[in-house]
Amino acid sequence: MSEDQTDPAAVVIGASVGAIGALGTLLPELPADFPMPVLVVVHIPPEGRSSLPELFASRCALPVKEAEDKEEILPGTIYFAPANYHLLVEPDFRIALSNEEPVLFSRPAIDLLFESAADAYGTSLTGVILTGASSDGAHGLAAVAQSGGTALVQDPATAEGQVMPLAALDACPQARALGLPQISTFLRQLTPNS
After folding, report:
1. Is 7 annotated as catalytic?
2. Which domain holds residue 55?
3. Residue closest to 88 by CA, chosen among 117, 56, 127
4. Among this protein's residues, is 86 annotated catalytic?
5. From first to last of its 194 residues, what are the pLDDT tens digits of the chain?
6. Tell me, what CATH number does 171's domain have?
């Protein structure tokens, strides 16, 4: 990226229980010319390989892949955290995978993605917490807001798992609680310098 382009921008999404349905509403709505990378952590069992990239690849206009260690984060690509690895963003906008201890019993952990992305992207980051049954992501979303980024939370009344969005709103009261259609509309209207 050359120095005269807009600051790199990104979207980070975290979800747990009910993630497939919620992401199935959001991700296919992103157009093929969506200008930012989307990094996603879903709480998945540690054993084996995640089938999420394959599940969503055929449903999305954007390329969908499992994140790989040290790869450059490219615009207009959806990255899923692999099973049993934390997904982090390096200051040079590359992916780092870590097998450090689970956070709130989860690896990958939403908090670690959001906190590292907030450090890297600052005001150009949009964080989205969706349905889930743990408080993972609450501190991460607060970090996004504290860095000047945008914080969105799925309206708990519409979430299959209400614990995660409620915890996120409690930790980050300035976050906007929206239904999935409204989050989808918000994301489609994002531009790298918005």
Report:
1. no
2. 16-187
3. 117
4. no
5. 333 345 789 999 999 999 999 999 999 999 999 999 999 999 988 877 779 999 999 999 999 999 999 999 999 999 999 999 999 999 999 999 999 999 999 999 999 999 999 999 999 999 999 999 999 999 999 999 999 999 999 999 999 999 999 999 999 999 999 999 999 999 999 977 65
6. 3.40.50.180
